[in-house]
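Regression report. Comparing outputs from two consecutive submissions.

Submission 1:
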Amino acid sequence: MDIEALKTLKLHEFEEAATGYRSVSDMGSQAKDALEQRITVQMRKALKGEAVDAAVVQLREVAKDFHYVQVECGLIGTALNAFAADMRPAQDKLKRALSEAAEHKFTVGADGSVAYPAAGENPGGSPPQPGSASGTLSEQVRAIQRQAGNFDPNPNYAIAQGIANRIAEALKEATDADQKWAPQLRKLKADDDLVVSAED
């Protein structure tokens, strides 16, 4: 997961897809119930013979297919909603960090580094140099960065470092969510046929 992918990820599209899958799940449930509780019952009441018995057997198979649609589409809808819910905090964190960087007129690189301009004063009178901060997830490195921020004459350093660290956190959270849910969604794939097999 990179900055551009997380920033532009349209989570509402995953939620809309989840709603669609839940609707299909509901339709599958209704169709299954209609076959099992109404249609086959009415056929048995109204008709007799081998043809009816054979038709009822076939309709039970179709009902199994609708049950499969109900269950699998429900699972897909749940997985899509869970993915969006896990991804949203990371995306919000990234957007807040990018907004703060823009407020300070810092430049965020594609790798998550934050470039900041010269500001403040050196004891010798020359202005402190501009610089760049790279995010880290290591608490030990962050402690060193905080100490360095106390001594750096450029006040932008500490601000940029905080933003870079939040960007690193957001990307880590998003990557974790992606790695968690992508395999789950890949598993929910069936053969393109009308038979619900054990493999499905």
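Submission 2:
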Amino acid sequence: MSETSGPAHRPSAVAGPWSVPVLFRERRPRVVVKADLLPAVSVLGTLSVLSFPLAFAWSRLAPPERVRIVAADGTQGALELESWHRFDDLAVFGLMTLGLGIVVGVVVWLLRERRGPVVFLAAVLGVALASALAMLLGVGWANSHYAITSAPALGSVIELAPRLESWWVLLTGPLGVSIAYSLLATWNGRDDLGRRLG
């Protein structure tokens, strides 16, 4: 009798896609945390530095609101359509931080050996921190740029510094990172996001 014959060597009739051997045949790549912590801190620190150019650019690009001096005590009167610049200031800042977030998402994705949730979260937090610092610095620099050094004359038109009146605009930067990184991860389609170069 052949060694391969007999019921012990027959293929199982119930073996299917949900059988135990199939479930444990392939190992899913684990999330790397320890090795990615130092690069994540580097990403976070580098992104916080971007708050300075972002704040300076916004303080120069955001439009000021023009008002007219209507009384000798310096009372200001609104000019037609000028109050819309308060929204323009928010929109300019939001578009700048959204663009920054998209660029950061793509650049962080190109760090192939560090792809994963740890560096992704560092990028999201880094852009959020850079946006918050840029908001504070930008408003301060705008106030300095449009500072009124002498008392304006009655009837004169002056420019008020741009301002940011809502903290919700800080969500646009992290949103940009999330959209860019998520689209690239979906397009990649690999379990390890292509971390292995082989």
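Expected: both submissions complete independently.
Actual: both completed, but the second showed a warning that disappeared on reload.
Relevant detail on submission 2: The longest helix spans residues 117-145.
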